Amino acid sequence: MNESAQHLPIVRCCNSPSIASVPANLGARTVAAKFQHCLIYCVSETVERKILINGKILHPEWRSVMGVTRQLADFVADTSYDRLPEDVKKIAKMCILDTLAAIVCGRESQTADVVIGLVRGLGGVRESSVLGEGLKTSCVNAALANGVMSHVMELDDAHRDSFTHTGAVVVPAALAMAEREGAGGKDVILSTVLGYEVVARIGRAGGKSHYNRWHATSTIGCFGSAVAAGKILDLKGEDMVNNLGLAGTQAGGLWESLMERAIAGSKHFHAGKAASNGVMAALLAEKGLAGSDRIVEGEKGLLRVTSDATDDDMAQIADGLGTRYIGMLNNAFKPHACCFSTHAPIDMTLETVNKYGLRSDSVEEITVSTDPASMPWLRWLVGNPDPKDEFQARFSIPYTVALAVLKGRVGPHEFRKELLNNGTIRELMGRVRLEEDPSIEKGGPGGAWKMIKLRIRTKDGKEFDNSVTAAKAWPMTAEQIPQKFRAVTEEVLSQQQIKRVIDVIEALEKKKDVSELVESLVIRKQMRRIPAIRAKRCA
Fold it and tell me: 94-124 pLDDT, tens per residue?
């Protein structure tokens, strides 16, 4: 910027590559009205006129006129496939494959039977597939069914900073809309990356204060599904803003749905509903329905109402937007078919048992410990000492750790009733303790632990210790996802199908549409069912 322009705000219109200079004495709201569809990139160097630099809001007057909802919408609308870093594209393809693994496994459950039965009965335009089923329905209902299936087995990925299972909501929406629109592989990859990115940034701002009250996969996830569907529809300008507004106003997902009988259905429904809500938002926005342009950051918007997010937290949503893709780069994959909060104890147990050759009948006690501030949340989420069904067992450190000792694996088929009620497993579960350890550094707010320790004491009095920090508790890499897909789908897909799906995903950017992928996922083998928990009907 030359010297004569140093006191002029610089505005780039999102609908045009032109640069406009605005007189420095023009009021903030006047500029906002004149350039209401614009993203402000650089402004005056004078302190009193500093507004937004590199996506970070610096002047309070402008915070009310250039909110993060619009910044996110502009980013999504402006970003093309060619602008994505190559490593991000590769991770995105593995995120899609990972979600497909979860969907195929989820089809085994009677929870899936219930939802697919409803979708089949509702009928609708045959435009998008219920994956694994060979059933076509509306894109909204396809996203619902596929989202539910992706979340049933607790195999879906998780984002470290936003506390969300992003793939379970973004990928079903992207694939449903891509099939409807005849979109190609590059469109699916791009829409997936952008969906993950928006979820990651909004979820990070809400943080643990949001997650402690709400199931963020559902509340924040609807923004990601809306972005994925809206990008495939090529929404721009006000249409993309409306899309986010319509998605956010549908946000919901109460943690009470994790309790007892509800966990067998309601929690899975969260992911499916968030996926379908986003698709619905995109379709309505395309038709011109208006949504709030401050649904994320407004005083009555999602983050102000459901979290303790500060102005600084809000500003960070756009910080580095388009230069660092935290949605993909900070994503984590699950090697075990259970809640992510059980994974560190499982991995430490497997490592210790294998390293020292320990046998289940030699174990006297297993202690899992973390700092006193983090333990209450860990106990609430995954401390269940007596799970009554397969779904509760996926949220039980005592069960999953006992399983790791006895079976040496914690896969999707290790949660069946015959194992859950096995006497040896039950006896070993009774030897698992969750304890507070004041010597461990205090974790972050809301139970975000920094370290977990494990001690296995054997009957001959020997003790074997292990520990892991939060930063090291995500061992699975994107490169391992094809292996995971083979391992968890081999009972329901043929080897030929498995190879074909992996091949399609690895070359997804070359595919003109998703028809080959959808066809390759149709389950033809007889499946072993995992029952749903059915409530008794009132007379």
Answer: 999 999 999 999 998 989 999 999 999 999 8
Q: Residue 402: which of 434, 378, 431, 369 has the closest Cα?
A: 431
Diameter of the chain by CA atoms?
82
Distance CA 48, CA 537 (A): 65
Distance CA 487, CA 483 (A): 6
Enumerate domains of the chain plus CATH numbers. 3-64 (no CATH), 76-332 (1.10.4100.10), 340-472 (3.30.1330.120)
Pairing of strands 432-436, 363-370: parallel
> What is the reported pLDDT for 346?
96
Residue 122 CB-half CA count within 13 A: 19
Tokens of 42: 């650089």
Helices (H), 107-220: 110-122, 139-152, 167-181, 185-211, 216-219
Q: Which two tokens stand for residue 536?
A: 């008794």
In this structure, the chain runs to a length of: 539
| Backbone phi and psi for residue 19, each to the nearest 5 degrees, phi listed first | -110, 135
Tokens of 380: 């609430």
| Distance between CA atoms of residues 397 and 453, nearest Å | 13
Structure tokens at 305: 């109402």
DSSP state letters, 455-477: EEEETTS-EEEEEEEGGG-----
Dihedral angle over CA of 471, 477, 478, 483, nearest 10: -150
Tokens encoding 461: 């009095």
- Find all residues with CB under 8 Å of 531, minimum gap 6, and list them: 109, 110, 390, 417
C-alpha–C-alpha distance, residues 229 and 180, integer Å: 10
Flag the least confident range among 15-29, 354-368, 520-534: 15-29
Phi-psi group of 58: left, alpha or beta (phi > 0 → left; psi -120 to 50 → alpha; rest → beta): alpha
pLDDT in tens, 270-304: 999 999 999 999 999 999 999 999 999 999 999 99
The answer to whether the CB of 142 falls within 8 A of the CB of 129 is yes
Query: What does pTM read for this prediction?
Result: 0.86
